[in-house]
Amino acid sequence: MTKDTQAPMKLIHLIGDSEETFYQLGLKDKSSFLPLFNQTRNLIQVNFKFLDSLIDEILNWGGLCLTYKSSNFRKKVRAYNEAIGLKEREMLSSFLIPEVLSCLSKWIPGLSPRLFGCSSFFMLNEKGEPLHGRILDFPLAEVFDSQERALKWDLPNLGNQLFSYSSSGFPFSSLTSMNSYGVSVAIHQKYTDVFNIKGTPIFELVEEMLLKCGDKKSVLGFLKNNQSLTTWGLYIGFKNGDVLEADLCGQDLYTKEYKLKENKILYFNNINIEKEQDFYYIPFGMKSFCEMREKSAEKIINNFLKSKAEKTSLNLLQLMSTPLEQKGEVKDWNLSPINHSSISCSTFNPKSGESLFIPGPSPKYLRSSVTSFETIWERIKQKPIAIKQNKKIEFTSGSLHQGTREMMMAQTSYDKHDYHMAYHYIQASIETLHKLPESYISKFFFAVFEFIHEPHRKARGLILQEFKDLKGKLPSYLNDHCLLFINRLQVLISGFPTISPMQIQNRALREVFYFERKIPPVLLYKTIAPFMKPRIEVLDVVYGHVHLPIQIKKLKVDEGSLSL
Q1: CB 233, CB 255: distance < 8 Å
Q2: How many CB atoms lie within 10 A of CB 502?
């Protein structure tokens, strides 16, 4: 079992302008940046050697073109890279990979999107000070969390300071951060079809916003005068209790404004402001992924408010980082905001300049200790806070933590194309989670691995039975996937499927069913299996052989059925 990290968290204090500090960070990261860099590059691999090389070169040279007008971004990355010593285009493109994954999947169906699946909480503490809680989800278990760190950046010329959390290999102070003016921000990734070549990379755009802005008015002015490359959500807190939700969609900006109130907690994840995640955007399960976390968050928040617990940063962190212990049938299980893919969890108090962080291996369930940063804008102090054990904490520190970590290690290994270790970790997670509903999620993805990588006819009957045993025991969206796999295996084994398309509730997955029905059975496996991409972090399977987004937009959507 993984042990908690007891050592002090790495804290780096930087003083000077952006180019100078990025160079200093490069020197510090030179011996430790490679795991994050390599794993990020792996996210654009489709496991076809020629195509991978082509994508890599397109992205490297495209990154130079896309950032031509973003002079500050280029200068910062160049300074960082001078200390590390890679080709400039490789370093530039590595910071653009999260930006363009969703768009590349439009043009290269075999490339499945990876998601910064995030959650943000806002509430007032007992003193009336605003608190901002942030959970970061991404498939980088053992990579991001093994080199996690806090950054404090002083800019004497601007009279401003930034404080942020990140990992070695990521020098920008914008992913999860706050400034000394009292502004906190969390970046959430969103999926649409927007790609704006005139836009600024999101990590640069948000960092510049934090350097220049100190209240809601200046932030709104900044965002209205800047464009993004792709679609991102910014969840921004201010020391006066204002909260701003902003979706940057290339040239378009959508915003909602809130005012924090006593006995009310705001929760946000990856749902778009202008419209909910449309079903034709990959990944098709994004709406389900967000709705599950939203339902769990509502229950967790209501339980907290009913308990009359003191409203403190530590209690907010515990609220965020303790998964909902759910009862009832497994099929009614909902993913919690803190989950198997959570690689960072923290709180900010932008008014007092204090922050809490859960250190150690992901997923970031609250366990034995928390790291506290105090007097951040003066002489920063770091100290550990021991967590008093109780039944709830014990629940999250045992098999759930270990089993869900193994689940995400399976995805990390799969992204590296190390399928042997992916099998090992997913099987280990099934054993560790065997008394918990999460075990059914592991069993589902184990069966998906088998379908993709075990083409032997003799194995198909056993795999079919595994999916049949899972039918009706999974959350609705994964159950739809389960029905699709049962249908495929029945076609491959006997040619006589028993699944009706009307049993599939998700409209886009119903379209996948119709699409595959047109493929001759003799070609079915070779046509679909090489392009399937399991995405455990968002509880989805992406089907690269079916490129539906553009086609479905042209359809007249009917709730009863769809047809191409």
Answers
A1: no
A2: 10
